[in-house]
Amino acid sequence: METDVRPVTGSLWRDRDFLIFWCAQTLSVAGDSFALIAVPLLVLNVTGSVAQMGLLTGVSGAASVAAGVFAGVLADRFDRRRLLIVCDVVRLVLYAAIPVVWAFGQHVWLLYSVLPLAAAVGMVFQVTYVSAVRGLAGGGRVTEANGMLYATAAAAGILGPTLAGVVAGHLGSTAAIAINAGSFGLSAVGVLLTRASRYAVEPVEPAPRGRPWRELLAGAEFLFRQPVLRTLTVLLSFFIFMTLGLTDIVIYRLKHDLGQPDSVVGVVLGVGAAGTMVGSMLVARVRRTLGFGPSWIGAQVVSGLAILGLGLAGSVWGVAAIMALYLACVSVAGICSMSLRQQVTPAHLLGRVTSAFWTIHFSLGPVGAAALGWGAARYGATAVFVFAGASCLLLALVALVTPVRQRHPERA
Description:
Elements: H1 16-47, H2 50-77, H3 80-102, H4 108-137, H5 142-171, H6 173-192, H7 212-225, H8 227-243, H9 246-257, H10 262-290, H11 292-312, H12 316-344, H13 350-362, H14 365-379, H15 381-399
Helix pairs in contact: 1-4, 1-5, 1-6, 2-4, 2-13, 2-14, 3-4, 3-6, 4-13, 5-6, 5-10, 5-12, 7-13, 8-13, 8-14, 8-15, 9-14, 9-15, 10-11, 10-12, 11-12, 11-15, 14-15
């Protein structure tokens, strides 16, 4: 593969390839926000069970973890541009199958077949996407690029959940899922319009014969040799256990505890997405001012307090405001973590390191999502929020006595 070795400099606002990629992914995330609302509503409206919501989230998460084992090798060994396009087309077909089949009757089993497959393909896409951003933006602009991508995705996510709630309320949840399917087509077209040379990876030696697992484990080995990345991976694995299923619990609280319609659920999550946009816009400045460690740990502390607040909020607008605060902090911590991995990882290993991180990171998530759903059904949403929030605060305290507290680990 021909590698473009020229440094990527200048303003991202004048970079044609990055701007096309940026717009395409923003539209895709807007479509994704429809599925974020529509799938849990579809399950809840058909089964009436928050435990089923948690179980489906858990099964899909498990499929992501399984795909993550191989996603990094694919991202490092194959044309990343072509891989992104293939993933988008496959997800378009999978999500489009739901409204088509649902037109002939309600089949919950279809969700357990399609959504895990879509989640697995989505993991391959995400690993490749993170690997591609460094090539598109350049190492020196990666935090800014991640902030721009997250900010506009969040802006699209503000309108998306609101429209998804309206569409689900008037046309049904499957109509909202069909819109999500179409968004993957837009994403594929956007990637197709960018130059292939911007996705090129550095040539690497072929994997040793008879030892394919060495290549699969190369990313994990790099993660655990780097002290900050190692600690972040462990801490974030427990964080995802506590938070992967939180959106389901918020929806359950709004529908079950507060008696709100689907349209209000969409509005609340749309307001919450505004927090992601704000956090994404501020993250580059926050990290420059405070450094990595204070930014990441501070965001985790506020996230834990916000989750506690969700258990105490008694009004719709209270839930919406706290969700905005929580998602703002999650975006700050997430962008800091992802940017650090992109900065310190060699380009030819970036796919496998990203894959290893997400595989380990999400390994406890499916169990946590199912556990949160079961806990909400048995003890109520408030108890789940209090437990999850207190646990996240504990993780932040642990981080204070680890290498994560460093202000500039990327310089080491």
